[in-house]
Amino acid sequence: MLAGTGSDVGKSIIAAALCRIFRQDGYHPAPFKAQNMALNSYATPDGLEIGRAQAVQAEAAGIPCHTDMNPLLLKPSSDHTSQVVLHGKPIGNRDAYDFWQRLAPQAAAPTQALDFRAEVCAAFDRLAARYNPIVMEGAGSISELNLRDTDLVNLPMARHARADVILVADIDRGGVFASVYGSIALQPEEDRQLIKGIIINKFRGDLRLFDGGRQLLERLCGVPVLGIVPYYKDIYIEEEDSVALEQKRRQLAEGKVNVAVVLLRHISNFTDFNTLERDARVNLFYTNNTSDIQQADIIILPGTKSTLDDLLELRRNGCAQAIVRAHRDGRTVVGICGGYQMLGLTVDDPDGIEGPVASLPGLGLLPIHTTITSEKTTRQCTFTFDGQECHGYEIHQGVSDTDKPILQADGCIGTYIHGFLDNAPVIDYLLKDKQVPAQQPAANEGDYFAFKEEQYDRLAAHVRKYVDTDRIYQILTT
């Protein structure tokens, strides 16, 4: 298990690296995270939903993703509520307080309510019967004392799996000694014995400067430091945590095609834009600044967990009007999933699935009406664009009154397909009428699958260089 001193310390990336390393070394690994909280998700081959990180880790392991790799997914819909996805299917929205209370030891018996702990443990057992080793991932910090009784994903899960735990810490944010020592010291003795190593992640500068720090940590904690992994900028691995959005570009640039992704409060699946973001012809940035939206060459309305709430906010902050004006001025507008729904004529929620807002007019750029439904569509799909075969996946609640997978009308494109922009024919179509600098080649040329495979191999090489994998194998076999 890769456990963490906090959120966004790099557990998911290190887990992906180990999945690839174990595969390269002849093993048959699989990823596992008992419970995930994220708006970036993915459709499995059998049409179910899991967290994006486990889908990425499965790719690194060279296996199809499955719901047993992430049996419980929480998709926040507000500050206090989340949609609960169990074994790939939504089972309703839950208030956060009530959800965590029912996991406490004094909560109702499993005969009266779902026993989530039993469900995630059973999923792990099924996975462990098919793959070896299992690369488990924890969530957030392992030292949230107030959540210990309800924790499904960190050391209680490690105890069930009899997993060796490696603690991952982010040195870039500071306080690495306190976070590592405190995370270990706050564990009860039974859990402290599970922690077999430490990985220091996101180091900047000369590694020799931390030689003394490494020795200090080992003396303080009684646990070996298995590696110090430098920060990297030239390896591209898809991220699921919305924290990653904070590092994205936020402004226009000269000499490139400016693509503005409208920054929604409940934005989901922002990995849809990774390929376009790497294209040398493009400056892709995230914004809700109305002036920047109107100046962009292409405007993208992304997916969202709460279509009506974000549509209402777009009207309040002026972005809706800015998008309509930009379209009138000849700019290209693209809507994906919830963004596609917003570009239509109306969005209706007669059963209050998303909340109290029953209906809103859309931006009126596409001739569709959408009704939010309790049934969720999740599937991988193949489609034809500009005469070429393309691939993507759908994850959405709501039905629009068209059977077309992609709807185009007067400089506006809408689709439910995530991964739409990972396909070279789509990107080339969007950019063909723009003033693209001829001397800059397209970074999306070639096979996207081959590109991702190369990145997993580069990530594995990076982690092998700085982490003692021989020591990890010794830990796993003793």
Euclidean distance between termini CA atoms: 15 Å
Low-confidence parts: 108-112, 441-445
Helix count, per DSSP? 16
Q: Can you give the helix content as a percent range? A: 25-40%
Proportion of strand residues:
25-35%
Helix vs. strand class:
alpha/beta
Q: Could you tell me the number of beta strands?
A: 25
In which order are the strands of the major sheet placed?
A: 15-13-16-18-24-23
Q: Could you give a short account of the major beta sheet?
A: 6 strands, mixed
Average pLDDT, all residues? 91
Taking all Cα atoms into account, the compactness measure Rg is 23 Å
Using the alpha-carbon principal axes, give the shape. globular
What features would you highlight for this structure?
478 residues; alpha/beta; six-stranded mixed sheet; five-stranded mixed sheet; 16 helices; 25 strands; 31% helix
Question: What do you see in this structure?
Answer:
With 478 residues, the protein is an alpha/beta fold. It is 31% helix and 27% strand. The chain is built from 16 helices and 25 strands. The strands form 7 sheets. Strands 15-13-16-18-24-23 form a 6-stranded mixed β-sheet. A 5-stranded mixed β-sheet has the order 20-19-21-22-25. The chain is globular. It starts with a strand and ends with a helix. The model is unreliable at 108-112 and 441-445 (pLDDT under 50).
